[in-house]
Design brief:
The complex is a heterodimer. Chain A is mainly α. Helices cover 77% and strands 0% of the residues of chain A. Chain A has twelve helices and no strands. The radius of gyration of chain A is 23 Å and the shape is globular. Chain B is mainly α. Chain B has a domain at 37-50 and 129-349: Orthogonal Bundle (MetI-like fold), CATH 1.10.3720.10. Helix content of chain B is 68%, strand content 3%. Chain B has 14 helices and two strands, in the order H-H-H-E-H-H-E-H-H-H-H-H-H-H-H-H. Chain B has helices spanning 2-5, 12-22, 24-45, 72-83, 99-108, 131-167, 169-184, 187-200, 212-222, 224-237, 241-248, 253-289, 301-313, 318-345, and strands at residues 57-63, 117-120. The relative contact order of chain B is 0.13. The chains are: A mainly alpha, B mainly alpha.
Chain lengths: 275, 350
């Protein structure tokens, strides 16, 4: 992890120093010192401390992304199990065709149309906005973006999880369970689900780092003051310190989460051994 | 003797072609993709959608099938054009003596106001450009960006993967380190960082126009998956008998890597390449939407969507519909084709 971290720092430094033509006379060791002391100075544009940008933007991002992650998993796993159970039938093929078609439409279209129809025309949700109260945010402003993102994430995840379930239905223990006379639903619930959850959990853990980056598109469209929108604004203003700090710290966070996930596997599945 | 040699096994690519034709979904998808490619070729050579940037209709011209829909925006513009009365400032304006010279100069210039039609086949945008032409031209740009970027990413990923997998040892360690560095940065942050430095950095003027900024961003961030796959294949193949035989007759390392092994792993590369095309087109659309993609004087699905967002609020839905349909059909067909390709190339199914 340390060499990788060194590589990330070097990559970001070189990118901004040589290609970005960073005008400040920044040297590599100053850059490293800034990272280690969590002191990136101030944003070039707003003179806000970069560390305070982090702390104030992260809550809004998490308010959106954590429910998305949970909702997606809660919807995709049962759907995938259902179509895997009815594999090869018309239901299975229809759901899969819908998934492919749904994945071909840009996320942008879902947001634009969803915001227009559900927010503007029908008025079920506020079109955009944010407040200081957490509960008000979660129950008034967040539902529409959460719903849209969960719907968009549903198609690819269902497809993926279905293949995990199908892989398991071909294994020997399923044949044994059938041979001893277990009913198909019982096999699915008691044997296949448990084993298929290992790759599913792997995939969910891959999505966890994204929780912190946030869905910048949602934040831009619904003017949610989160980290993703902040980075986008920083790119438009060429606000290098903000981009650098966010990139490096979120990379570190990603590495830590992946490490934790690796350790957790040994608990979920004792067959897996860390070398 | 010739009769004996005739029993050579079927060429892999002929087999692929035969399997694709047997697969109905694959054949239809291939047809659609080829139709798009022909459309792009025509658009690139100027036979199709040449006048996409010309203002051929009134602002927000209605689609032909909705000809009698009220068009407030066009009516408003017409009204303001005719009502404009310039007040006479001759006695207070210090530039009054120049009026005659200006009038003469204006007379020298010829300007023609083109005839603007009230309806267009699939409607017009804010400046009265034909949405259908724009969608065709936008397809050209978006698909070209996706394909070129995927080819660049494939080139990088294949080269690095071949070296890492074939040589192993320190070459592998070094490239694995590079892979870890690139994958531990969340991809959207890497894309944004690159976009920031390419927009305002030392080399900004080099990429000021054209599609190269997006292509570089996508290729630079998207090579890792290809690298990983190709590396695994090369590790598997490097000690196979046919490669050892090639070594025994004196084939150099370069020759073994690219003449002997590469054709045998090309099916993996081809499938991954088509997956990359789909992924890159989606990212390009988002980047162009955010203004970080193709430059202003070009049109892509992403820039069209960014116009469509504001148009939708005043009820002009046709640009959004055109882009969505063009994009969804292409990406669905391409994804289906990729699936068929993977099935057709899978040695286990032969």
């Amino acid at each position: 992890m340390v060499p990788t971290l060194a590589g990330v720092i070097l990559l970001v430094f070189l990118l901004f120093k040589f290609f970005g033509g960073d005008p400040s006379q920044m040297q590599l060791w100053i850059f490293v010192r800034e990272i280690l002391t969590f002191d990136f100075g101030k944003s070039w544009m707003t003179r806000e401390q970069v560390s305070s940008i982090f702390l104030t933007r992260l809550p809004a991002t998490l308010t959106i992304t954590i429910p998305i992650l949970l909702l997606e998993a809660a919807l995709a796993i049962p759907t995938a199990m259902l179509v895997a159970y009815y594999r090869g039938t018309l239901l299975d093929r229809t759901v899969m065709a819908i998934c492919v078609a749904a994945m071909s439409i840009s996320f942008l279209v879902y947001i634009i149309v969803g915001q227009y129809v559900l927010g503007f025309q029908l008025g079920w949700f506020p079109v955009q906005g944010w407040s200081d109260s957490f509960w008000r945010n979660l129950f008034t402003y967040a539902p529409l973006p959460i719903l849209l993102a969960a719907l968009v994430g549903l198609a690819p995840q269902t497809r993926l999880y279905r293949s995990f379930f199908l892989d398991e239905t071909k294994s020997d223990y399923v044949r044994t369970a059938r041979a001893k006379g277990l009913s198909e639903p019982a096999i699915m619930r008691k044997h296949v689900l448990r084993n298929a959850l290992v790759p599913v959990l792997t995939n969910v853990s891959l999505l966890v780092p994204g929780v912190f980056v946030g869905s910048f598109l949602l934040e831009i469209f619904f003017s949610i003051p989160g980290l993703g929108r902040e980075i986008y604004l920083a790119v438009n203003r060429s606000d290098y310190p903000v981009i650098q700090a966010v990139t490096i710290y979120l990379s570190v966070l990603t590495m830590l989460i992946n490490l934790t996930a690796d350790v957790l596997y040994t608990f979920v599945d004792p067959r897996i051994q860390l070398r | 003797m010739a009769a004996v040699l005739d029993v050579t096994p079927e060429n892999a690519w002929t087999a692929l072609w035969r399997r694709l034709q047997q697969d109905r979904v694959g054949a239809v998808s291939l047809g659609i993709v080829v139709a798009y490619l022909v459309m792009i070729l025509f658009a690139a050579s100027g036979w199709l959608a040449r006048g996409w940037s010309q203002e051929v209709g009134v602002p927000y011209a209605n689609p032909a099938f909705l000809g009698d829909r009220p068009n407030l925006e066009a009516a408003l513009q017409k009204k303001s054009q005719h009502k404009g009365v310039v007040p006479d400032l001759r006695n207070v304006d210090p530039l009054a003596p120049k009026y005659e010279e200006w009038a003469k100069r204006t007379g020298e210039l010829k300007s023609t106001e083109p005839e603007r039609s009230m309806t267009l086949p699939w409607g017009g945008d804010r400046w009265g450009r034909d949405v259908l032409d724009k969608a065709i031209k936008g397809s050209q740009v978006s698909i070209a960006v996706g394909v070129v970027a995927a080819l660049c990413a494939t080139l990088i990923g294949t080269l690095l993967g071949a070296f890492a997998g074939f040589y192993g040892r320190w070459v592998n360690d070094l490239l694995e380190w590079l892979y870890n560095v690139f994958t531990s940065i969340p991809s959207i942050l890497l894309i944004f960082s690159l976009a920031a430095v390419l927009r305002s950095g030392a080399f900004a003027h080099l990429f000021a126009s054209g599609i190269w900024t997006v292509v570089i961003i996508l290729a630079f961030t998207g090579w890792t998956g290809m690298y990983r796959l190709v590396r695994a294949e090369y590790m598997k193949h490097r000690s196979r008998e046919y490669v050892l035989a090639a070594q025994a007759i004196g084939a150099s390392a370069t020759s073994r890597m690219f003449v002997h092994i590469l054709p045998n792993v090309s099916h993996v590369i081809l499938v991954q390449l088509s997956l990359l095309v789909v992924a890159f087109i989606k990212v390009e659309v988002i980047l162009s939407f955010l203004g970080l993609g193709v430059p202003l004087e070009m049109v892509s699905w992403g820039t069209m969507l960014s116009e469509a967002q504001t148009e939708l609020i005043i009820g002009k839905w046709w640009q959004l519909a055109a882009v969505t349909v063009f994009m969804a059909i292409f990406l669905t067909a391409f994804s289906m084709l990729t699936d068929s390709l993977r099935d057709a190339l899978d040695p286990k199914l032969r």
